[in-house]
Amino acid sequence: MATGTDRDESIAGIAREVADDAVRLAKAEIELAKAEAIAGVKRLAVALGLLAGAGVFALFLMIFALGAVPTVLAGHVFSGWTWWLLTAALFLLVAALLALLGFRSLKRGIGTGKQLVGEVKEDVAWLKRLTKRNAKES
């Protein structure tokens, strides 16, 4: 039959194992968060590269297509330079709208990153408290 001290040592050993497992779990969680962040950044970089390429070709398309509009309309209703000004105003309006949408999207992305950093900081603080408590008990 186990004596009281054997049982206390057994419980203390189990508690240390649980604490060690919790530390390993926290470290694994931090590594997982790092891996997820790196994978997310890589996906984002590829997506941004593809979108930039598409944007360049779309820009060429818009230059040629919208360059043709004032040329075709010159002499009808307004003179040629008026149509060019109206086309420039249209470009300005589209650019402002896209800048607004991009800024909003960027703010949302930064907020998500800050949330991830906050979660990692909480995990690190919990891990430090756990290891300090574990060191005191040893």
Task: List low-confidence stretches.
Answer: none
Mean pLDDT metric: 81
The fraction of residues in strands falls at under 5%
Rounded radius of gyration (Å): 31 Å
Overall 3D shape: rod-shaped
Please outline the major beta sheet.
Answer: none
Distance between the first and last residues' Cα? 26 Å
> How many independent structural domains?
1
Helix-strand pattern: HH
| Count of extended strands | 0
Helical percentage: over 70%
What is the number of helices? 2
State the secondary-structure class. Answer: mainly alpha
Organism: Candidatus Aeolococcus gillhamiae
Protein name: Phage holin family protein
Pfam family, one: Phage_holin_3_6
InterPro entries: Phage_holin_3_6 (IPR009937)
Describe the structure in brief.
By secondary structure, this protein is mainly alpha-helical. The chain contains two helices and no strands. It is rod-shaped.
Task: Describe the model.
- This is Phage holin family protein.
- InterPro entries: Phage_holin_3_6 (IPR009937).
- Keywords: Membrane, Transmembrane, Transmembrane helix.
- The protein is mainly α and 138 residues long.
- It has one domain (4-137).
- Helices cover 93% and strands 0% of the residues.
- Helix 1 packs antiparallel against helix 2 (80-137).
- It is rod-shaped and about 105 Å long.
- The two termini are 26 Å apart.
